[in-house]
Write a structure and sequence with these properties.
245 residues, Rossmann fold, 17% strand, globular, binds NADP nicotinamide-adenine-dinucleotide phosphate
Length: 245
């Protein structure tokens, strides 16, 4: 049952792509989605090369587009659904983050993952796993992250009620800390990014930022854990702990 089809919404890069690779390594057929067709094609080629003989597909569609449901239905029954899509704004000092920025953050992440789950619902098996990818900002209580905490905290708050409402499907979330993915490479000059990673690492019990494969390991383990539902599992190097550093 666990080796059924795994769909990663937002699976053409970073944590989603690493998660898709991990599912494929476990022998699960995989479908990844993303908006940018070139990036998606590259991801599909990379996954096929790393897991010869495993069925790998790609769907180029926005997670918020109802067409996602129609396209997923063509792939048959779905055993694992991972919701990794994000983007949008919401970071910054509270006095400077206006309603439009927070609304954009909700649209790009909370509602993208929410809508994608609704689209996929008719294709999910009765015992499917559903895993949201949220963020440590939901609970880390760092200055400048109130908007991100609202966006990710909303998803984390939905995990419990969804785990009850959609049972016996299992609903969980993995909450990453700072992870070195292409997301950071597109947004910051290398020097500023390295400085931020070093500063973050110093404050963490594990003393470093994470790699996408490390989060993928947690996502797939949780998806395969047949007696676990309704949990939010940090994969953050200890960012959820108050270390006093
Ligand atoms: N990296 C970190 O430090 C970090 C920390 C905490 C939480 N997270 C969370 O982890 C998840 C993955 O982040 P990442 O760092 O791996 O980002 P990433 O490398 O930028 O990958 C994001 C993926 O989501 C897809 N995507 C974004 N918006 C989409 C939409 N509306 N519809 C469909 N696909 C969409 C992207 O492809 P297209 O752009 O082509 O659509 C891409 O495949 C996100 O939810 C992020 O908030 C990341």
């Amino acid at each position: 049952m666990n080796k059924g089809l795994a769909v990663v919404v937002g699976g053409s890069s970073g944590i989603g792509l690493a998660t898709a690779a991990r599912f494929a390594a476990e022998g699960c057929p995989v479908v990844v989605t993303g908006r940018n067709r070139d990036r998606l094609d590259q991801a599909v080629a990379q996954l096929r090369a790393s897991a010869p003989g495993v069925s790998i597909g790609g769907i180029a569609v926005d997670a918020r587009d109802p067409q996602l449901g129609e396209q997923l239905a063509r792939h048959g029954e779905l055993q694992h659904l991972v919701l990794a899509a994000s983007g949008g704004s919401g970071a910054g000092p509270f006095s400077q983050v206006g309603a439009d920025a927070v609304r954009d953050g909700f649209e790009a992440k909370t509602l993208a993952q929410w809508t994608a789950l609704q689209s996929a619902l008719p294709s999910l098996t009765d015992h499917a796993s559903i895993t949201f990818i949220t963020a440590a900002s939901a609970r880390a209580a760092l200055p400048g992250t109130a908007g991100l905490a609202a966006v990710n905290g909303a998803l984390e708050a939905a995990v419990g009620p969804l785990a009850v409402e959609l049972a016996p499907r299992r609903v969980n979330a993995v909450s990453p800390g700072v992870i070195d993915t292409p997301w950071w490479h597109g947004r910051m000059p290398a020097e500023a990014r390295d400085a931020y990673f070093a500063q973050t690492a110093r404050a963490l019990p594990l003393g470093r930022v994470g790699q996408p494969e490390e989060v993928a390991h947690v996502v797939v383990a949780l998806a395969m854990a047949e007696f676990v539902t309704g949990v939010v599992l940090p994969a953050d190097g200890g960012a959820h702990l108050a270390t006093g550093r």
